[in-house]
Structure formats: structure tokens, C-alpha cells
Amino acid sequence: MKDFRLYPITGENFHPGRGLAEVMEQAILGGADIIQFRDKHSGKEELLRKAKALRELTRRYDIPFIVNDHVELALEVDADGIHLGQGDLKLSEARRIVGSKIIGISTHAIEEALAAQEQGADYIGAGPVYATRTKLDVVAPVGLDYIREVSRRISIPFVAIGGIKLGNADEVIEAGATRLCAISEIVGSEDPAGACRAFIDRLERKERA
Q: Phi, psi (5° rounding) for residue 182?
């Protein structure tokens, strides 16, 4: 898969009055290089409409488009991949269905991360690093120690996720993260492009150090 550094996830509740594609395009213009569509509430037709719009947008900018949970939707819009939680479809079954598409797996403990790697995940999400309100079913924060452990023991790409803000990004990066996922700090910003540039700047400062 094409590597990435900044991974926004959609969160329309954080930008009322602004369109989904508009906000995500601003994120891309600011440096986001992969996009995940996560929507737990819309009906099938609305999901399809939104996914098609984001698929067109990400094709235009040549970045990967990931769909959360909805495997059939991902196939219907020809997304580049899917992202699954620990309670979702098993990775082996997902691989049988989506073939060579990207599969990302959420992990909250090193045993889950090692299992995802062994079973053929293309990348993992590591978190939630901090407390977050972007999901109702979120698990307890895993903290920076988990990021340190994943950076030492996992060889596939991992992205730190969960409560990551511009104010705490540096400590997540210092713990070993080279890829960050942010939601409210980006899509809830009045300037999503600027927020993305600020995250990228923090990652690049570490790379130069």
C-alpha cells in the first residue's frame, strides 16, 4: 500500500453546515494523504451517496480511500480498502471478500496488534491514545506506552489514533508514532487545511531531528 502520514476520519457532527466533501478536500489540500469514511447513522442510500462523493474526491487527488466497517459499500464504490474493529468481520474472511484491497485493523493491546500483523493486515490503528468522544463504543485510553510498544514490536505500518490534538501530537510522535489520525481537531476546525499543515509540520520536525 502507499504509505501515509496523516489520516483524517470523517465526522460530520463536528462541522454542521459544511459539506462532507468540502471539509475533506480542505484536509487533503492541507496534507492529509489517506481518508477514512466512517458513518454509523446514515441509511444505505445516503451512505452510498457520500461514499461515491469521497471516492471521486480521493481519486482526483490520488490518495487512498478507506471505508470503515461497510465491506459491501467499499466494494460497490471501489474503495481502496476497509478498516475493521476487533468486533467486526474476521480479517481472514474480509481478505477472502476484498482480495488485495487494503485492510486496516483497530488494536488496543499488543496481542491484538501482533495477531493483526500475523494474519495479514496492511496496517493497524493503535489507540485510543487519549480519551475521545468521537465514538460511543470507545475503549479506555491505552496511553503512550502502547505506542512505544507497537513502535518496537510491529513491523507493518501503524497509525496512532484517539484524542490526538495539536497540543499533544509531539508527545505521541516522541513515543514512536510516524503516522497520526485525527478527527475533531481536523474536521471540526474552521481551517481543516491549516490544522493538517500543523500536524504535518510536527511530523516533519521529528523527521528532521
A: -135, 150
